[in-house]
Amino acid sequence: MLDSVFPPQDLSLLQRMIFIWVFIASGLVVTVQVSQSWADPRPRWTVVTPENKPYWYTYYTLVAFLFMQIAYGPLRWHLEGVLPWSLEVHVLDALWIGLLSLEACMLAYVFTLRISAALRRQEKVKEL
After folding, report:
1. What are the residue boundaries of the structural domains of the chain, listed by start?
2. How do residues 66-121 score in pLDDT, each as one tens digit?
3. Fewest 10 Å CB contacts: which of 51, 60, 64, 91?
């Protein structure tokens, strides 16, 4: 499906390695956050509060998108004989486009939250 819209392009080795290392670093952040959830004096940055929940969820979606970006080629190769060709491509493309769309929506939501919070702060300062 994407091959008909975009020219077929595989990631170069350097691009794939960059994605893999960013995914590993992101996974380490998530691992530390989860491991600290049972600590008695829990570090403040690991707590998911209503204020920072959109940021953490956006980060988790980014990690899932990075995984899908890295695993797209190997998954397509692995599913080669399991599903009919058109179905395997459509399933993987739908997952990729869905995660990309979700990440874009979440980034727009977080950006809107930040702008609205900044505007509210400016209004409070003007009222004083």
Report:
1. 2-127
2. 888 888 877 777 777 777 766 777 888 888 889 999 999 999 999 999 999 899 88
3. 51
